[in-house]
């Protein structure tokens, strides 16, 4: 398992990359621009969303990255082995669709979904943990 921790979870550059990708493929990047403003607002009256709201925003960003690729998806894949990376790439859209339906993100349901897709237990567990670490 090659999961690393310590670096910033999701950067403004990651979101800018997603905005560009969504604009090229799906049209309206408005929700992404709003997410970026909320996560990185430095206003004097508000320091940004609370921890729960920020986590939900990061979850939506990851789902978008699974569908559109880019720097944020690369950040997730950098935490995984080459075999796990190939599995995430193969099932990215299915994983995004599943995460869209998940109300509470936890390792077990993500892992079980990945196993239903055909991934072995070990890889499913590592990927689920990496997903959760990224959205923190």
Note down, in words, how this protein is organized.
This protein has 136 residues and is mostly helical. The chain has one domain. 70% of the residues lie in helices and 0% in strands. It contains seven helices and no strands. The protein has helices at residues 12-25, 30-39, 51-68, 71-77, 82-101, 107-117, 121-135. Helix 3 crosses helix 5. Mean pLDDT is 85; it is low at 1-7.
The domain count comes to 1
Task: Indicate the radius of gyration in whole angstroms.
Answer: 15 Å
Order of helices and strands: HHHHHHH
**Strand fraction:** under 5%
What summary fits the major beta sheet?
none
Q: What is the molecular shape?
A: globular
Structural class: mainly alpha
How many beta-strand segments? 0
- Measured between the Cα atoms of the first and last residue, the distance is 18 Å
Number of helices: 7
What value does the average pLDDT take?
Answer: 85
The helical percent reads 55-70%
Enumerate the spans where pLDDT stays under 50 for 5 or more consecutive residues.
1-7
What's this model, at a glance?
This protein has 136 residues and is mainly α. It has one domain. It contains 7 helices and no strands.
């Amino acid at each position: 398992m090659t999961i690393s921790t310590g670096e910033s979870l999701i950067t403004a550059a990651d979101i800018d990359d997603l905005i560009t990708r969504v604009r090229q493929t799906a049209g309206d990047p408005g929700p992404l621009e709003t997410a970026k403003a909320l996560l990185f607002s430095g206003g004097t009256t508000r320091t940004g969303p609370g921890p729960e709201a920020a986590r939900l925003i990061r979850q939506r960003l990851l789902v978008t990255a699974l569908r559109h690729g880019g720097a944020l998806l690369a950040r997730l894949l950098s935490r995984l082995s080459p075999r796990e990376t190939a599995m995430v790439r193969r099932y990215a859209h299915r994983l995004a669709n599943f995460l869209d339906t998940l109300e509470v993100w936890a390792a077990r349901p993500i892992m079980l979904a990945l196993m239903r897709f055909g991934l072995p237990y070990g890889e499913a567990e590592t990927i689920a943990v990496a997903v959760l670490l990224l959205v923190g």
